[in-house]
Amino acid sequence: MIRNLLSAIALSLAGLAFAGPAHAAEQEKIVDTGWTDVGETGYATKRLVLASACPEACPWGELGEFVRDAMAPEGYEIILCRNCNRTEGPRVVAKASLPPPLKEGDIRHGTTERINAPIDFGITEASMMAWAYRGEHIYQKDGPAPHLRLIARIEDPTYLLVAIKPELGITSLAEIRERKLPVRILTDMQPSEAPVLEHYGLDKASVESWGGSIDRPHDVTAETPFDVVISSLASPANNPESSFWTTIMVAHDLKFLDLPEELLDRLVKEADMVRTTARWGVLRGVDRSIKTVGRSGEVVFARADMPDEIAYAAARGIDRARGELKWFVRPYSIDPRTVGDGKGVPLHPGAARYYREMGYID
Fold first, then answer.
1. Which of 34, 96, 130, 149 fits a 20 to 30 Å CA distance from 344?
2. Per-residue pLDDT tens for 274-299?
3. How many CB atoms are closer than 10 A to CB 1?
């Protein structure tokens, strides 16, 4: 039952994922349909176009910069498509299509150019690549894209955390429905967060009938009204998707709640999460170890038609430059034991050859 629920939620939120995580892209106004000419690109030119994201610390944006710089010593010029983001990355890579039009959110986060060139490869969240490969959830209408291939997985952990203002006076989210509290809930309603609301019966209609609201944590300031936060993007990093945590935890005292074991097990099984512990101090207000779930994994990915020598060079360049990842906004890293893990998406043969030579895979 929960798999059907997640599919329905994910389909209804097809425009929400923003660099990994979730803004209402499809609902935003198109503001620019023009083009920026970048000259000849493609496999034969060694000038490749990478589906990336915004220059303001968007995870797929700064990882795009990392890949661009990592492949320069390999002899490649990488051109970043800054608005091939949100849910669009896997689509434009799979179809080798041109970038979509610029939208309000793109301009707001510093993306002002629409590259006039087809997309050669991209960066996205590992689960989103796997969903696109299988034609699931937000990519169900697109159908499977079995020609997608992994080049490298880059670790990037975030936690699912639930926080409340202490004056709310509750110890469990169950009390909200029991007492019909008029709470203001901030959540991105991602497939990794929606099951929490479903578990406690906190649907939008019910919460609003009690005088409350469910809103996404966009453009949050210290004055933004809220009572509850439910987010699987919990992190002290200041990328656009997680920075609201810094804003609210500095301005307000927060109390973090535990989630029941059965809910955590369901999130592992159905929402592609892993069991982990949010340790003392990971965010202000986390005053103990909290058993929860999290996710980690951004991916550099391509199509099967990418020549082996290019995929090999990409894997080698990324691996050789991995020490540079510690200087970015997010806590990225490359683990040789997981760099080839595509959640069921095959490794590109060129990348696989490099990782075998290095002893990372059998």
1. 96
2. 999 999 999 999 999 999 999 999 99
3. 7
Partners of 50 in beta bridges:
80, 121
> Which tens digits make up the pLDDT trace of 92-101?
999 999 999 9
For residue 283, the one-letter residue type is L
At position 244, the amino acid (one-letter code) is F
Q: How far apart are CA 351 and CA 320, in angstroms?
A: 13
- SS3 at position 219: coil
* Burial (Cβ within 10 Å: 0-12, 13-18, ≥19) of residue 305: exposed
Map residue 180 onto helix, strand or coil.
coil
Q: Which two tokens stand for residue 100?
A: 């979509």
- The angle, 0 to 180 degrees and rounded to 10, between the axes of the packed helices 308-320 and 59-71 is 100
Q: Residue 59 and residue 50: Cα distance in Å, rounded?
A: 14
Nearest CA-CA partner of 216 in 25, 23, 20, 26 = 23
Structural domains in the chain, CATH included, are 2-156+297-358 (3.40.190.10), 158-295 (3.40.190.10)
CA 51 to CA 91: how far, in whole Å?
10
